[in-house]
Design a protein that fits this description.
Rossmann fold; Helicase, Ruva Protein, domain 3; 5-stranded parallel β-sheet; Arc Repressor Mutant, subunit A
Length: 409
Amino acid sequence: MPDVNPFTPTFGTSPPLLVGRDSDLEDFREGLRDGPGSPERATLVTGLRGTGKTVMLNAYEDVAGVEGWLVISETATPNLIDRIIHEQLPRLLADVDPRQTTSHLTGVSLPGGFGADREVSERHAPRAGLRSQLTLLTDVLGERGGVLITVDEVHRKGVGELRELGMTIQHAFRERRNVAFVGAGLPSAVDDLLSDEVSTFLRRADRRHLRTVRPEEVTEGLAVPIRAAGRDITPEALQIAVTGTGGYPFMIQLVGLHVWRADSAATVIDPDQARRGVDHARRKVGQLVHASALADLSDVDRSFLAAMAHDDSSSRMADIAARLGVSPAYAGQYRMRLIAAEVIEPRGHGLVNFTLPGLRDYLREHAASSHWSPDVDPHPTGRPELPGAAQERSQLPRPPDDNDTPRLP
């Protein structure tokens, strides 16, 4: 009887087998062992939605725990510093300090013999002072370990608190204390944060960018959990599932989940079940990932992507510009923006393609532009005003004339 479905396509939940990240984790482990001054003790993890940033934070925390370090796990939401000062650090201090209570004499009673009253109070009652409490905690630990602070979803909105945290950690580094920091966020959010006035140590942090996983690692990430849970999968079915993930970490879990569900009573997963599972996963990833990714973009960015969705493979920049009714130079501005956001990637001279698996199909079903959809003429003769174009023009430098090619009005 097979076990329950082993796959976990829930954001932030660690998969049954983390693949493709061994070298990053081993570098971090060595950084903890090498002592203060190791570059991995200040790390920023970046990646698109679904590449496993939160899962990597979980893995870094596990590594620290095995090495005997204490962990403070947080998210860059309002009152971050307050939570660390009044909840996290007092909790850890109470756990590790043998002198966690103090007492003092409050009165003496003599009738019938000598006696005394003593009041006992918590020595580590919550109190302000991020640096003082972190210093005290590392002093108590001595050589027995250190303190890892992880912060998920870092972004510019939390720059004030992240600056305070960064300055405190930088002081700890200068004092050669056993402290480490790992933050995680979207590439654009981290870049925005680092462009502000943050601590030097954040700008110099070791950057780890999460990309897609190699096919052989995806194969392991699917086959090992399936077989460990009491079922098998044919080589052809496994290849279909691997290809269906596109190497995208979240899709490994989503494809695995639906391939397993295609016929949960079968002891062996066959190619037909694999195809049905992949199809279901591709439909589901739009709702779970693509909708959020597109929400972060401007109207014109989305129109650019919708123009790409006409093509079954890589798109020619000349075709995209024609579909949008703009000059190649103007379209090139948005190409650069979307490449920087890692939503698209160059595929040779004048060619671009999507980076996220299934995004093309999602766009075809949910056209980003109100002026066209995939079933209309892909080469419009008019020059419609794209949604948000006026605002976008005010934010971009005016592109040079390109042989009198028509521009946005």
